[in-house]
Amino acid sequence: FTGKDLIANITLPSGKEQTIDVKIPPGIREGITLRLAGMGDDSIGNVARGDIHLSIRIQPHRTYNRDGDDLMMEVTINCFEAMLGKTIQFNTLDGRTLETNIPPGFQPSQILSINGQGMPSMKDQRMKGRLLIKVNVTIPKMLSDEQTTILKTLVNIASNMY
Description:
This protein is mainly beta. The protein has helices at 79-84, 145-161, and strands at residues 4-11, 17-24, 33-36, 52-55, 65-67, 70-78, 86-91, 97-102, 111-114, 131-138.
């Protein structure tokens, strides 16, 4: 998300140890290969040094999944919050706290989309993907007699509205 500067110690084919600085750009994707020109094999005299090719592997995040420049996360609300709406807060990859509203009548198959809160684009770091929030809705498995009576009353009222 923010990129990273790394220092790596490598052993060249000639047996020499070399320290290299690697700049991982923000928004880099899994499987991209970075080329460090002229920093590789130096074992053949009178021949220009080769290149070092680094393949990027990205560790999974516990909250976010990535799809291109979009980030995806899941939140869980109960069925009453889905009916009435709810404001949720969550932390972003860069440590900010964002707040968004799940509108009343939210359906389990819907996904919230927040533009500009995803991964930075490698081509233009001013551009960012979307944050996609999958909202899981839980339904109570056990209700008391009183809760059942209240819900039946609400169902009767709602059925008379249509």
